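Regression check, zinc ion case 301:
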Amino acid sequence: MKETPVALEIYNYLQQRMQLSPSEKTKQQNLYKGYVGEKALHALLKKNLPSHYLCMTDLLLESNQTEFQIDILLIGGRTIYPLEVKHYEGDFIIQDDGWYVVSSKSEIRNPIHQLKRMEVLFKSVLGNKFSNFDIEPNIVFTHPEFYLYQAPIDLPLIFPTQIMRFIQELQSASSHQSQQHSSLVHFLEEQRMTQSTYEQLPTYSYDHLKKGIVCTKCSEFLVPFSTLKLLCKNCQTKERIETAIKRNLVEFMQLFPGKKITTNAIYEWCDIIQSKQSVRRVLKSHLTAIGKGKQTYYVSK
Ligand SMILES: [Zn+2]
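Current build output:
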């Protein structure tokens, strides 16, 4: 499935270069857990489901000006399965209508309410067009260490130890892919909205970020070692200067998509590279140069 989400990648870059607030750290953690859970489930489905099942991920939709997301959507036979993936870890308990973390006794957002809301909104997106499909929403818990006390038997929940059985049930429901399946996918692709990555991020600016090149192994900043290599004093990892510049360039482009890429800009961003010539060489070999001389800047190939 998808690679690391851009928002998560940017958080990972930022945490080396600025102080994240506790709430930003929580946000980063949630992005990470969501990603891990979804990735694991998607891989399982992909490996085990017959090919007539169609699968969509991270489907961001809108109904009556309300946005909602479906983590994984399966379509097979006459049924649509919207799956909400939760990578909760540890013990939880349902009391009355509330969900609580057992250790801290703190209440969490009731995922059933969230699922119901999603179902209502999703039905209104589909309208009458695809009313012959049944909709079977479920919450899938992907963390092996998750446990939920006092869960009523009739809730649409799939626990870690039930995921394979859920997949087996899907396997045994025989079906073919039909024209209607693909027109449903086509319809949803048209409705799909793109999420603004930058809305999910903390505010940051170039001036406030620490410049330099971060070690790939331990996240310390690298120092010059020889004419060809940089060194991490913390874990002794050495990296070729050109590879390190290239990595830092990718980081720069992702953090500041609007900023002009020039030799000087990347030279300053890398902070510890002694020769501008090596920065220029990296830019030239990975990007397209526009303009000449001092005015030269670079864009993606
Ligand atoms: Zn290191």
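Comparison notes: The chain has a mean pLDDT of 93. The radius of gyration is 24 Å. No diff flagged against the previous build.
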